[in-house]
Amino acid sequence: MSTDPRPQSAPAIRSHARWTPAKQRIFLAALFETGSVAAASRAAGMSRSSANRLRRRLTGTAFDRTWDQLLSAHARRLADPFAPQAGAPAARG
Q: Tell me, what's the pLDDT at 47?
């Protein structure tokens, strides 16, 4: 038994959840596929709120611009699912 009168503090829990470049790529790919920040965050193993914090922190960067572009591309794909996709071969008639 310890005779130290100082209160024992709980050990610090360090989160290993960090937005690595790989997680950012997974998030962006899933964002294009789903159009959902929550679903894309889950795919990357992160939370929706942490994705939004990351975006605010990276405002104006390639990550931020790509986020907007992918959501727009997803919306266009939903609006016209038969439109040719970028990178897809054109149909021959």
A: 96
Residue 16: pLDDT band with limits 50, 70, 90: low
**CA torsion sign, 75 to 36 to 28 to 58?**
positive
The HSE-up count of residue 3 (CA atoms within 13 Å, CB side) is 0
Query: Would residue 20 be called left, alpha or beta, if left means φ above 0 and alpha means ψ between -120 and 50 degrees?
Result: beta
Domain residues of the chain, as ranges?
21-79
How many angstroms separate the CA atoms of 19 and 17, rounded?
Answer: 7
SS3 sequence, 49-90? HHHHHHHHHCCCCHHHHHHHHHHHHHHHHHHCCCCCCCCCCC
Q: Is the pLDDT of residue 2 over 60?
A: no
Residue 28 confidence class, pLDDT cut points 50, 70, 90: very high
Lookup: tokens for 64 = 């931020």
